[in-house]
Prior knowledge:
It contains 2 helices and 28 strands. The chain is mainly β.
Amino acid sequence: MNNTLKHKLLICCFTLTLIAVSCSKSESPKIQDPIPVGIEIDFVKTLGGSNNESAQSVIQTNDGGYAILGYTQSSDGDIANKTNTSFDYWLLKFDQNHNLQWQKTYGGSNDDRGNDIVQTSDGGYAILGSSKSNDGDVSENNGFNDFWILKADAFGNVSWEQSFGFSGADDGISMITTNDGGFLITGVLDVSASGGQGNTKTTSKRHAGGDYWAIKLNSAGTMQWSKFFGGSFTDTPYGVIQTNTNEYVIVGSSDSDDVDIKNNKGSYDFWVVKISETGELIWEKSFGGNQADEASGIVATNDGNLLIIGDTRSNDQDISTNNGAADFWVIKVSPEGTLIWEKTYGGSSFDAARAITKTQDGGFIICGSSRSGDIDVSDNKGQNDAWIIKINNNGELLWQKNIGGTEVDLAYDVIELNDGSALVVGESSSSDFDIQNNKGFSDLLIIKTK
């Protein structure tokens, strides 16, 4: 080998060494996967008056239409037959062509806000929320907020109503129809104000603050049993299902680490409670990290497991990845509460999941809100946008879409319609970009995909 060739080889080796050393000392740039293509939007509607309105829950009805429950403060604009400006439950019934068939408001002279709706076997509706009233449609108030459940017929006329609570802030949040034709209603019991009342039988365990409160009713609204679960801090349930073996699984958040909670991970956790058909605690599990993690919804999967959604601010313990301030967090657990997998979705700012529905193809649509415009989120119109994603049974992100304007726009519930489109409801304060009309402060928001 001649000297010229040796010199060239030495220069080449030295150059490669410098490149290798340089690469080893500097962090490789992150290659981001393409953001999944968003679904197309069919329409965006806002309904309301000059004050505040919000949609909290939506169901598909037996006739192919849908019903939306929320609350209204207005007595003008799109709200009919309301004369005062206190908050009332607001129930709206639409046909399958998205035409409003009728609307009703329910409440008294104080603050009454609807949170959840189910259709009953007779074609009517049962609606749950919180009430501070003791007049108008509300026959009783036990002090501050009570659970208030109302049964209406197929046209929204009141069949019966019931209040449950004590002297503190007792908030009805979620409900289901049960396999025996009754109802399970859940929410927060202010145990400190109740003096430990709230269980069907007295308990020797001392609780404090707010606890999960589960009340079993028969089809006529008569209480069959009542149980509360939690610790000495704040425990708030947001979702419940009944299993095919008649137990109940309740999900929410807890920052307690005593009494019923045995393994708090730090700050607020997803707290999952399984109880028997008669309300006895079977098991409880905490999932999360050292920051705030709050569960907001649950569905059963086709393979017999459970999918639980919410948001996480953590990046340790049960959470493998965090994209920013807060992400959608989805966990899959077995019927025994064993973690199977977990996934986060979101961008570098605050993203919070609020509801989940199972789709006809075995996937799941999740809705909530996002302040991000990067990583998994295609863009941001300003402040919070409504954000909708679809995942498959393995948690892979199939598509995502954000809808909003320059003000606060939030999605609280979602269903899949018979044609495979998604219907999302929430509230909006915007009047630009995707939201063309605003009637007052916040409006009831309806979004339909194609």
